[in-house]
Specification:
This protein has 397 residues and is an alpha/beta fold. 48% of the residues lie in helices and 14% in strands. The radius of gyration is 22 Å and the shape is globular.
Length: 397
């Protein structure tokens, strides 16, 4: 076996482990090592915190959604924190003060981490539920999250983001939905063994006493905050019965921007929090490396397999593997040029989504090393690049 073959099979094995091997291991471990979690009909004081910037068009709908939750209003605190909004976000939120909604307004747009650091310690709830503005929260979602805290070992619980309105005429976005379901499969198995690596930013809860301030430039607060909980010896669970729903954007460019931001956040996270990569310090080290770190290296593995395959085309097997790669990348490109092909199903939409996500990894790395990814919100009313959490590909980091 020559050097090109060693490189080809090394890259192929790493890709196979990342996308197939680790999910299989996670599934097997959940069957063999699965730890039961205790659920109970408890009703502690809960604080819901929504951080918003220039969300005047959506804040009323978000608050009305929260006021309809199936949870004792006397045990529920709803707080809207405006991060330097320049539109009518604060005025529209203030219209609900007589219904028990609290509004905290910061004059300067500093970014979500700064707001979380300032607001969470002063909340009244034993539990804090964090969510974004865009998604619709199911009526029983908070109650479903809270049930898990009957177990004293549980420090945080992630809800599930449900993607709706898959557009068959869209640019292969059914493949994004498929990839997100695959991601949630892994998270649930990790949760059953010990903990998930991070949470779904659209909806998650934690014990307020376990919150630790995060660096103000943090892009992925929904990963770092739960990992701080893990570091303190508690579990972070995934609760699929607690749902937040959001429609996929009909344009892959939107999902690409969201994913690129998420990936930039991952690179930033591991660079600024090296303890996550230390086996003796991070008890979820194996899951962190297998689930998160290796995903960041997959574009390199893909390029390695492609380039070495080209150098081995004089052999029959590698001619076949080369044709498979050509067909895979060709179908992805075809969907981007002819979106109607997405209606043909996963045969076209999955390769397109896979390539979209790996291309976003390259862009995210560039944004990280060049320092072009900002934590503050853009003037358009969404954080720059659109926050890479609860948009459909959010969480696939």
């Amino acid at each position: 076996m020559n050097l090109a073959e060693v490189a080809f099979w090394s890259g192929a094995l790493m890709l196979g482990y990342t996308y197939l091997g680790y999910p299989l291991i996670a599934a097997l471990r959940s069957r063999i090592e699965g730890r039961p979690s205790i659920k109970g009909a408890i009703e502690p004081r809960v604080s819901i915190l929504v951080v918003a910037h220039n969300e005047a068009s959506r804040i009323t709908r978000r608050i009305e959604n929260l006021l309809d939750l199936d949870y004792d209003p006397a045990r529920l605190e709803i707080v809207i924190a405006s991060d330097g909004s320049t539109d009518d976000t604060v005025a529209r939120a203030n219209a609900f003060r007589d219904r028990g909604v609290s509004v905290v307004s910061f004059e300067q747009n500093r970014g979500k981490p700064s707001v979380l650091n300032d607001v969470i310690p002063g909340l009244a709830g034993e539990l804090v539920v964090l969510m974004d503005v865009r998604q619709r929260i199911a009526g029983d979602a908070v109650r479903r999250l809270v049930e898990n805290f009957a177990d004293p070992e549980v420090g945080a619980v992630s809800g599930e983001l449900v993607l709706t309105g898959h557009d068959d005429e869209g640019e292969g976005l059914e493949g994004v939905g498929f990839y997100w379901r695959y991601e949630k499969f892994i998270r649930l198995r990790e949760s059953r063994v010990d903990s998930t690596v991070g949470a779904t930013g659209a909806l998650y809860a934690l014990r307020r006493s376990l919150f630790r301030p995060i660096p103000v430039g943090t892009l992925l607060d929904d990963v770092l905050i739960p990992m701080h909980v893990v570091r303190q010896g508690f579990r972070v669970l995934f609760e699929p019965a607690a749902t937040a729903s959001e429609a996929l954007s009909p344009e892959s460019s939107v999902e690409f921007a969201r994913k690129a931001r998420t990936i930039a956040g991952n690179f930033q996270l591991f660079a600024s929090q090296p303890w996550l990569l230390v086996p003796g310090t991070n008890r979820l080290w194996f899951a962190t490396v297998s689930h998160k770190v290796l995903r960041l290296l997959c574009p390199f593995f893909l390029l390695l397999v492609l380039v070495t395959n080209l150098a081995l085309l004089d052999r029959g097997f590698y001619q076949f593997s080369g044709l498979l790669q050509l067909a895979f990348y060709g179908s992805a490109l075809w969907v981007s040029r002819a979106p109607g092909l997405a209606a043909w199903g996963l045969l076209f939409s999955v390769p397109h989504a896979f390539c979209l996500l790996n291309a976003a990894t390259v862009v995210g790395f560039y944004r990280f090393v060049s320092g072009r990814q900002q934590v503050t919100w853009s003037h358009s009313g969404h954080r720059e690049g659109v926050r890479g959490r609860p948009g459909p590909v959010d969480g696939i980091h």
